[in-house]
Amino acid sequence: MPAPRILVTGGAGFIGSHTCVALIAAGYQPVVLDTLVNSDARSLKRVACITGVEPVLVRADVRDGAALDRTFAAHGVQAVVHLAGLKAVGESVADPLGYYDVNLAGSLVLARAMDRAGVRTLVFSSSATVYGDSQPSPIAEAAPHGPVNPYGRTKSMVESMLADLSHADARWGIACLRYFNPVGAHESGLLGELPNGPPNNLMPYISQVAAGERECLVVHGADYDTADGTGVRDYVHVMDVAEGHVAALHRAARRPGILMANLGTGHGASVLEVVSAFERASGRRIALRIGPRRPGDAPAYWADVRSAWRTLGWRARRDLDQMCADSWRWQCASPHGFDDPVPTLVPGA
Ligand code: NAD
Ligand code: WQD
């Protein structure tokens, strides 16, 4: 019995490559559609080293309906995990039309192509940014949307579009996953985050300071109303997020309708707590200085994760120490251009 094929748009990226590992472990065959605008095809070779199965790569744009039609026709896809998108908040403020084009129009073109192909099981990569910066934590899925930047608005609009689709056509099974702060790397050290240029996000920046690639971490504000004054977030291991997609796929394939689920740990950690955890994991001291608050930053937020457990049977299993240990292993494993010979792992290792 051949493995059921799942189209993973954006599957060569950070979340996508880890999701391919989890899908293969669950008995699926990923078919990746990706422009590689923010990733490297060799990440799929790394997926093969870890699992023994190399995802098929279709190098195409999610906004290209004809390419999607050809992909559905050629690969017998049974469901879609939709991760392709642009994700930098600051960039979305500077280039809103670029973000609406890829994230919103791309999702519309994909949904239409799915409908033409008769494929109506979809897991969509949403974000906690749909909640905005004024919701009390822990934040539950029923909290009102209040995105405060174009990026968050694109995610919120796609969710609304998919909800309308689901209400109009009961054949669709849809799961919208609102990731909080995915961090870490696969435990093998073969996959991880590949930030282009200076990282905007905390964990990759700390990792590069620990490795001596960056001189010092600037803490964006230490005068927030939090335990130590620094920003608090719900960091969640990228492999937990990946496994959350498998759980959501199982649910969406069996139950028509639409569900939203927070993917987080349900706990907040401050910047200084992350720094301490990374110092324990790496054995390195992280040089830092306190800088001004970063515009647009919320003081503190973390997820209410009860619904993800109730509806998906999913909860995060990896703690902050493992997130840091796996990030550090990835940081140390190789020059991040994937320019080293790809090591061979026993499949399924
Ligand atoms: P990423 O940039 O590593 O992965 C996105 C992938 O999509 C890349 O491989 C990129 O080449 C591809 N892509 C971009 N535009 C495309 C297009 N038009 N057609 C086809 N492929 C395209 O980012 P990621 O962190 O893996 O994020 C994946 C998804 O998860 C995104 O939709 C993002 O908005 C969402 N998300 C990420 C985070 C996070 O903190 N990383 C948090 C919440 C939600
Ligand atoms: C975390 C904390 C910073 C860097 C972002 C996106 C969000 C989502 C996840 C896509 C904050 C502090 C950071 C640094 C610092 N992505 N920090 N020094 O902003 O919570 O969320 O990634 O969906 O949309 O907004 O993550 O890692 O940038 O910041 O002090 O050099 O670390 O102030 O408190 P954020 P982050």
Automatic annotation (TrEMBL):
Similarity comment: family membership: Belongs to the NAD(P)-dependent epimerase/dehydratase family.
CDD domains for the chain: UDP_G4E_1_SDR_e
EC number of the protein: 5.1.3.2
GO biological process: galactose metabolic process
Superkingdom field: Bacteria
Protein's recorded name: UDP-glucose 4-epimerase
Taxonomy of the source species: Bacteria, Pseudomonadati, Pseudomonadota, Betaproteobacteria, Burkholderiales
Pathway listed: Carbohydrate metabolism; galactose metabolism
